[in-house]
Write the C-alpha cells for this entry.
Amino acid sequence: MRWRVYLSGEIHTDWRDQIVTGAVGNDLDIEFTSANIHHESSDAAGDVLGRPDDDFWRDHQSAKINSIRTRTLIKNCDIAVIRFGEKYKQWNAAFDAGQCAALQKPYITLHDASIVHALKEVDAAAVGWAKSPDQVVEILKYTLRK
C-alpha cells in the first residue's frame, strides 16, 4: 500500500527535503504532498481573478484558491506532518492541524520544545510530537514496516 503523507507548515527550512530523503533512503512507499511552498506565488494565487486594490481582499481571495489544494490533499492523505518553525507563527499550520483533527486524520507535530506550551492543544490532538525530521522518518518507518 502506498501511503500519502501531507507535509504542512513552515517554508523557510529544508525539513520537507529531509523527510523525503529519509523515506527514499529507507525504501518507504510514500507519496508526499504539500501546499504551495513558494511564498510569492501562494500570495498571488487569486490574482488570476483580478488583483484587488486592498491587501486584505487579495489575501482573502488567494487563501480561497489555495484552499482548493490544501483541503483536497488533507482530505486524501493517510497522515500529515505539521511543522511549526521558530522564526514565524505558522497560523496556517495550526489551521491544517485543526482540519486533520476534524477529519480524524492522524498527524504528527514537528517543532522544538520552546513552543510546547503555545501548541499544547495542537499537540494533544496529534498522534505524536517529533523534534526532528529524523524522528518523523523513524515513525513512518515503524508504521509502514510489515
Observations:
- The beta strands are 3-9, 30-34, 79-83, 107-110, 128-130.
- The CA atoms of residues 64 and 74 lie 15 Å apart.
- The chain has a mean pLDDT of 95.
